[in-house]
């Protein structure tokens, strides 16, 4: 599997490149944080309204570090807490996107950063945010259930390497 693909996001031709363990120090270029959350050999997937089943994640809020943002997103979407480890980043390039809007919502080249969480606390699911349910699946079931591009499987492989 290649570490680079093109996706069509809302009519936008976007190039995605998986960069294992690449640290992104400029938080202004981080467009979102995501992570695979593990508990007793299973992975947490959340059903996000208008996105389907996916791993917890979302945007940084003003003043947050990526780590703080991921902890918040994992709690808000999956009601879980735990220790996290950095996995890497997906570079999101709009260089080949004729519909790209300079000075718009996203940078020409931005990053989605990824973490692995070992869940230490699983709280009751309260249905308070943008997720409708959570499920626990075996890692090999991810391709059949998660609604995402194939680079997400490379991210999963990296997460599985970390003990």
TrEMBL record:
Lineage: superkingdom: Bacteria
Residues annotated as domain Nudix hydrolase: 28-159
Protein name: Nudix hydrolase domain-containing protein
Native source organism of the sequence: Lederbergia ruris
């Amino acid at each position: 599997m290649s570490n680079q693909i093109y996706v069509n996001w809302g009519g936008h031709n976007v190039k995605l490149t998986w960069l294992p363990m690449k640290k992104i120090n400029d938080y202004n270029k981080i467009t979102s944080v995501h992570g695979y959350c593990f508990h007793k050999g299973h992975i947490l997937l959340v059903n996000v309204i208008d996105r389907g089943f996916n791993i917890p994640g979302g945007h940084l809020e003003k003043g947050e570090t990526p780590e703080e943002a991921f902890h918040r997103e994992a709690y808000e979407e999956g009601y879980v807490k735990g220790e996290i480890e950095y996995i890497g980043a997906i570079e999101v390039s709009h260089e080949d996107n004729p519909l790209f809007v300079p000075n718009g919502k996203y940078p020409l080249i931005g990053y989605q950063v990824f973490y692995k969480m070992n869940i230490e606390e699983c709280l009751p699911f309260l249905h308070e945010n943008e997720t409708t349910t959570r499920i626990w699946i075996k890692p090999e079931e991810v391709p059949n259930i998660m609604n995402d591009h194939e680079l997400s499987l490379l991210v999963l492989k990296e997460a599985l390497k970390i003990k």
